[in-house]
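S.,

Sequence below, as promised.
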Amino acid sequence: MELFLDVLGETLVDTAKMLPFLFLAYLLIEYIEHRHGERIETLLAGGGRWGAVPGAVLGCVPQCGFSAIASNFYASRVITLGTLMAVYLATSDEAIPLLVSMPAYWDKLAVLMVIKVLYAIVVGFVLDFVLRGVLPKGLRGGYTGHADEVDCHEEHEETSSIFLAALRHTLDCHEEHNDAEGNEKPIWQAALRHTLEIFVFIFAFSLVFGMIVEGVGEDVFAEMLGGMGFFQPVVAALVGLIPNCAASVLLTQLYVEGALRFSSLVAGLCTGAGVGLAVLWRANPSWKQN
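The prediction came back faster than expected:
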């Protein structure tokens, strides 16, 4: 019990320090989404074969909507494969506001974002220019549709299972911004809700992680993860494929706690595309392409 209380107190203090920074980060994200959301969608759809550049930059915005929009645009052949992959690779989901809430990691955050943006642009250009003639025509995407023909939040009539209905509900990016009467909520309310949700997740994870480390021993735990060697980034990359913000929070927390190397964090956050992958499987009919 004494061990538990020590870890509980330390975890509460550490996570409470994040709250002001976390709230300000989400407030900025909500402002960008509300005031410039449509403009950003137009920019993403109008990039053509050079869309990897705006795709990589826009993917940096830690918000679920852009990777979902990119998936819908690709399924409707509005954007190219290179643009889609640039958005996916640049997306870091909740990792950015989490690292913003820790001033000691701002330098690492800057390096992380530069790596991801450059990597996303390079991969996008390789897919759209170098490998375009090699890729199957149906996989290339782009040039056959227009952005205004795509409804990112379109509801489908199929109700084949409870799971799909729940998934559609989860992927409705605008639902959280309206009250029961359909009126738009102030952006600070949505920012506060996001902040509290992530705070609870971080607190719970830090508490469990702290108990494990204290119980097993910090040296033993670090040696176990460090012993993965080459496979640590591979495992992190597989975790990143989980289409949920919990994956990016988990990877970031493990990095902050010293359990993951920076290379593993980059690997996991590059494969992580938020809900974009889930939307792709829903919107794009070809499972082979997906």
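The longest helix spans residues 187-216.

Coffee later?
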